[in-house]
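User: hey, got a sec? need Membrane fusion protein (Multidrug efflux system) folded
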Amino acid sequence: MKKRYIFFTLLICGLIALIAYRISANSKINTPKNAQRTGSELGVQGKVLKAEKFADNLSLSGTLEANEEIELRSEISGVVESINFEEGTKVSKGQVLFRVNDIELRAQLSKVKTAQQLASENQRRAQLLLDKQAISQEEFDMANADLESAKAQTQLIGAQLSKATVRAPFSGTIGLRSISKGTYVTPATPIAKLVNTSQLKLTFAIPEKYVSLMKVGSALTFSTSNSNEEHTAKIYAIEPQVDIATRTLKMRAIADNKEGKLFPGTFANVTLPLETVEYALLVPTEALIPIQNGKKIFVVDGGKAKEVVVETGARTDSMVRVLSGIKVGDTILTSGVMSLKNGTPVKVNLKN
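Assistant: Yep! Here you go:
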């Protein structure tokens, strides 16, 4: 019985020693690389806060659109007589693009012009007779109405005849055509697309909380998915109201595309400057510790770590702007902060 008691006593002591060893080993493993104890102090890295210039930018997604774009169609029906453009080439405003056969319209125009001449002569004769009181005013008015009707008919046929020749409404690049010479076209027949790409529209939307900062004429930068080159644009139009469904405000900017590197329909990464702060407090992201009601940071106060609740603002990839809670000259702790507690003695290694 005594031997059994000694055996269980030794076993329990061994288990206690093993547990104590594991706890000690785990404590060493979990100690951060940059946090080393020197005596009773914890070695950490820190930074003395200085006021810095900070550009607050908003990153958005947008779409490039052609400045002007139409689908060419014929306003009259008929057989295509000639095509005067090459696919994918640039055309100038007023340039003839294609012609529809107008032989019937010309014949109709000749007919109505003859009728107009006859109506004009009848009106002249009626005027002479009216002056001699040989006819009534009513008869003269009828002759005059016939002349005006003939003139209107001539103008109508002339207008239709002018539509047989289709010209470019603006300068741009013409796309792939959907017709050939001899094709019978109607106003519903698509011919080709004409796109002005010398300038491109950039359409994007911003969250409603930034609406008050937006104004026409503001400059921005953007890049596309097919290139890392940065382009500039200027806001020229803003929607008058926020979209209720998305809680965003849509706006458009215009960008030059003289070199033709940008294409309508492509995705754009937009960087929109909101404001430039001359004296901002910036801290590394790793210095901030999330808490229930926001974020906190550790500063050095009398050789000890002191936690301070801070209010944060905009951020970059590695830095966060702090709006309140700390001030210029404070020494913030940037590493080993997860092992710190309020009042922990620290030895700070300052870094620039």
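Quick note: The first helix runs from residue 2 to 30. Let me know if you need anything else on Membrane fusion protein (Multidrug efflux system).
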